[in-house]
Amino acid sequence: MAISPLKAMNGERVVVLIFVLRVLSSLPLALLPHALSLSLLSLFSLVVEIRVDNSPSLFKTRPGASSGIILGAVTLPTVMLSKLIQLSRAVSLQQIEIGELEHMTMQFWAASACSCGVLIFLFIVAWCAANKKNPHFSCSVWDAKFSLSCVILYSAVCCISLATISHTGFNTALKLLWLLCHGFATVKLIQHLLSTFPFCASIGEANLVTSGLVLYFGDMLACTISKVCRLLIPPELVSIRYGIKRSEIGIVIQGVLLGLLIFSAVFKFLIHLWEYFWGANNSESRERKEIWRSLIFLTSLGFIMIAVAPSWMMIVLDFDVHPVPWIFEFIFSEPFKRLSLCIYWLVLIYASVLRFYNISKNSKIERILLRKYYHLLAVLMFLPTLIYQPKFLDLAFGAALAVFLVLEIIRVWRIWPLGQLVHQFMSAFTDHRDSDLIIVSHFSLLLGCALPIWMSSGFNDRPLTPFAGILSLGIGDTMASMVGHKYGVLRWSKTGKKTIEGTAAGITSVLAACSVLLPLLASTGYFLTQPSLSVSAHFDLQKDTGMVTNKSFPTCFHLEAFLKGKKFIY
């Protein structure tokens, strides 16, 4: 018999739906179509998760983890919608141009299309598996009708919304085709990910990763296509515009990541080519072959990162100078502060790695708990830097991500002479979430701290937004794991390991950290460096405190005073 969604609700699903409802309750009327589409996506993902959880094992996912389909499906669209709400306030305050809001609208629909494509794929797979197991299976007919209705209604809302920001019907059709490509690419990528790296991720985690990759690199592709069309086609024949004005640090990070993506494909092609023509000659020693592979690796990496990626940045994104001298100029613009931070990071990393590496080899402490100490290390490293040098931290996160990617390529390909050493070192910190094929724990921690900071660049009228990753991972996740592991009894779901006690500890610790952090930010003058906070504070303080302020006075002082419990009247 059919499973009622209400009867199948568990704590994890309830929390996700409450999170979505909280965002929907903040929407202005202008974003009503987006709210409807997110609601339909949430209901569709709920039905798919229930169906997949009650089907035979469809994919080789991470053991002991819940499928997390609803969480993986709604996270990116909800974050994009939250950013849309913020930008709509910025437009009303005349802080940004309308083009930036339209660009974020396209990003929201692209993220939704990625999730919707994966959900359709999962539902079809679960339907076929159920029918194959029982040819007379008919209990999911209601699910199929409901899901089809959600998809049709979602598509109609998407078309209407895109038509409102498009000048012609051709532009609307072009945007719909672009969204369709996003959904198709995400489905192909998640199939490849789950088959190539079995038991490394849940379905929800794989959906979140693949959607993010398609969204990020799709944005690069769209910028490239737009630039090429403007260069090759006369402007009177076509007028293609895409993207927004990006920060210099954002351009550098995007160029480096694109370069590493190109490098991985080129290096794999060159290795296969080399093995085809010269690999059959067994007269060469193994050591000599490893040296040749290392030379190919270093040569291709250097050429792409020094020549290809900077060329793309300068041509497509109109970056005026080569990024290498720009990076040095940026660092040495404040040499004492930024070099001191680098020394501080290196000392912390060296001491912590040396200490915990020895513990991991000799101690019986569970790896999952041992790795939480690195979460606390992230708080010590990143929190002071975010307060005093936020732009430098942006660049440092990009550099760290690039280094991690290069080291992972070296480890996977066993590039001489570091490949085996890196593999042995990284294996000391792995647990059931990782495998010999790919180790993702350090990427999860780094991106978890970096993404809220990167996504809050530009207009941001919420002071704690950049700190979300550091607080939730460094403090909330650490406390949740420790308390849940030691005292947890009540589980959120039958298949997952998350406990209510751990979740309560995580939420309480983050709230306590926020209550300490806000006065600290006010006392350090953090808000003085955030112009968007100053603008929004003027309106919020007038509404909340009844103060009459002079619009020409820097309203960040009012926010400082408000957080310190004082009233400024000017």
Automatic annotation (TrEMBL):
Listed EC numbers: 2.7.1.108
Entry's localization field: Endoplasmic reticulum membrane
Enzymatic class: transferase
Annotated keywords: Endoplasmic reticulum, Kinase, Membrane, Transferase, Transmembrane, Transmembrane helix
GO molecular function, one term: dolichol kinase activity
GO CC term (a single one): endoplasmic reticulum membrane
Membrane-spanning intervals of the chain: 106-130, 151-170, 253-274, 295-316, 336-357, 369-389, 395-416, 437-455, 467-484, 505-528
Keyword Membrane: yes
Membrane topology value: Multi-pass membrane protein
InterPro entries named in the record: Polypren_kinase (IPR032974)
One GO BP annotation of this record: dolichyl monophosphate biosynthetic process
Principal location: endoplasmic reticulum
Family: Belongs to the polyprenol kinase family.
PANTHER family per record: DOLICHOL KINASE, TRANSMEMBRANE PROTEIN 15-RELATED
Entry protein name: dolichol kinase
Organism: Gossypium darwinii
